[in-house]
Design brief:
Elements (H helix, E strand, L loop, with lengths): L6 H18 L7 E2 L2 E2 L1 H13 L18 H11 L26 H12 L5 E4 L15 E5 L2 E11 L7 E7 L10 E7 L5 E6 L9 E11 L3 E2 L5 H7 L1 H29 L1 E2 L2 E2 L4 H29 L5 H26 L1 H4 L5 H11 L6 H13 L4
Parallel strand pairs: 3-6
Antiparallel strand pairs: 1-2, 4-5, 5-9, 6-7, 7-10, 8-9, 11-12
Helix pairs in contact: 1-3, 3-6, 3-7, 6-7, 6-8, 6-10, 7-8, 8-10, 8-11
The structure holds flavin-adenine dinucleotide (FAD).
Amino acid sequence: MDFELPEELKLLKNTVRTFVDRELIPVEMTSMDGPSMRPEIRAALERKAKEIGLWLLDVPTEYGGQGLGLLGMAVVWEELSRSIALPPRGPGVFGPEVRPILFTLNAAQKEKYLYPVLRGEKFAAFAQSEPDAGSDPGSMRTTAVRNGDHYIINGYKRWITKADAADFLQLVAATDRSKGSRGGLSMFLVDTDTPGVKIVRRTPTMMSDMPCEIALDDVKVPVENLIGKEGEGMRQAQSWITAGRLYQACRGLGVAKRCLDLATSYAKQRVTFGAPLADRQAVQFMLANSYTEHYMTQLLVYQLAARTDAGVAARHESYMAKIVGTELGFRVADRCLQIHGGMGLAAEMPIAHMWKDARSFMITEGPVEVMRMVLAREILRGHV
Ligand SMILES: Cc1cc2nc3c(=O)[nH]c(=O)nc-3n(C[C@H](O)[C@H](O)[C@H](O)COP(=O)(O)OP(=O)(O)OC[C@H]3O[C@@H](n4cnc5c(N)ncnc54)[C@H](O)[C@@H]3O)c2cc1C
């Protein structure tokens, strides 16, 4: 059994780490303007990333990308998450954000949606959550009713990241409410300029995110904008969920690593009662625990990624990784904040920002309690 990263991924990790240290960390306190990155900073970072080959990393090679697997993406996400220069919920600076479902579109859909996204001409938001359907999409109320050659969509979406900047939505709606998430949900491509689509408000959060509420009022969508078949919506959303959970776990790993580094260096320099904080056992234990928990979590995360790349189902590992990865990020950020005292709370330091972002990852894309619930179900059924 080999716990070492392959040489090429060690090299990639090192390249991304250097990019983060040299390009992201120096601009991280000024890179954001509300929920978005300042365009001039984004353009400069993207130019630099392209120059050094950090571009379209996870896009399959047949679409002009580098076809990196999940283990490769794990090390990239982990390193990128050491800085708060980027928006907490994408897009990053290594190419346009392309959700994997877009690669499954039919030829005509790809022409209209996938290729423009890959060229950076169009941007998509993912619209599933609703006021009464967050963790539990099966209770969704937005409906899509077939009427000849089109569907009529009515409903309300909440928490949709960057919907106000999106050209189209990958929207989940109920085509058969009686079936709930077991075959009752379908996914559609909905242009945001379609009559009846209205961004009602943006919700400020404690992070820089400002997700949108969207009213859908008799929105007429052609049948050719259905992705796959009716009833496949949940399965399609689930198809990238392992990667989504892995991503969240990597975010936690990155935050934890940066916070451990910050806390270590501050503990060595800050003197109280005549001695550096680093001499106090209370502080040493926080550092030792953080290092140990980071180490254990990284092993689980890399194993999840490697198994998924090898085609082995790793659902249980994905629940565990989401739980321990996101909780690690918040716990270590919290310790780092405590070690910094008042400076930990200062808005001019990155710590409180990371603390808030890390806290949010324990809720979005499936709260940790829901991960525990589904894992426990599998344990009780004897499936693990
Ligand atoms: C900043 C931000 C960005 C987002 N972006 C998007 C987006 O782009 N697209 C999108 O579709 N959605 C998005 N979401 C929605 C996000 O995925 C949901 O907030 C999340 O799934 C939780 O749903 P909820 O908020 O309705 O919480 P609920 O489902 O109401 O749950 C509330 C709490 O109850 C607990 N809980 C729930 N169920 C159980 C259970 N079975 N057992 C024990 N405890 C339970 C958990 O602690 C949970 O945190 C975003 C949310 C935020 C905050």
